[in-house]
Design goal:
Layout lengths: L11 E6 L6 E3 L18 E6 L4
This protein binds zinc ion.
The site of zinc ion has 8 residues, from loops.
């Protein structure tokens, strides 16, 4: 019966901080929405970003 909320799912997800302009965005979109820089784990810092509810 339980299991839906098995994980302590916080409202955060992993994201990137753009190495070029500093904008933060989720990993779902690897290209910076601000400057178009293509982030990878090597080039951009990985940060926790707040995830919008759906
Ligand atoms: Zn950028």
């Amino acid at each position: 019966m339980s299991g839906l909320y098995d994980r302590t799912d916080a409202s955060t997800a992993e994201g990137y901080k753009c190495a070029k302009c500093g904008a933060a965005f989720t990993m779902e979109e690897p290209n910076c929405p601000v400057c178009g820089f293509a982030c990878t784990p090597d080039t951009c810092q990985i940060i926790a970003v707040s995830k919008e509810g759906f």
